[in-house]
Amino acid sequence: xxxxxxxxxxxxxQKKESKEVDKFxxxxxxxxxxxxxxxxxxxxKDELIVKEGESFQRIFQIAKGVCRVxxxxxxxxxxxxxxxxxxxxxxxxxxxxxxxxxxxxxxSVVADVNDAEIYVIxxxxxxxxxxHYPHLSGRFYHYLALLLSKRLN
Length: 153
Description:
The protein has five helices and eight strands. The chain has helices spanning about 5-20, 30-35, 95-100, 125-130, 135-150, and strands at about 40-45, 50, 60-65, 65-70, 80-85, 95, 110, 115-120. Helix content is about 40%, strand content about 30%. Helix 4 packs across helix 5 (about 135-150). It is globular. The protein has a four-stranded antiparallel sheet.
């Protein structure tokens, strides 16, 4: 009694690490709360969703379809930097850098298919939501940090 074997101590450590990760995980039920306050807008192919240089306090999540991220080059040409898909799950997010830094959009985002459905999550709604569900803000910002980290790698 009271003697830990190597196996039991390592399983205790794994359980503790699992709980620590879990307390920051943004679960589907959390996304449901966030999406309840979002507005869903349908865009057609090549329709502008976010204009480079535009200021806003919102985040966008692709519910259906594909969007492309474009940057203006000298001479007016556009370079496609990325494509973001709805099947990326909640990772199908854009506008998070402008939201976090409170700066204008560094690139434009355009619908790449017809009938792309985009959730628009307003910053003021998140503020209200986090007042009512304080535990959610840490999970949300942790999720954004992980998302940005994955995009950098």
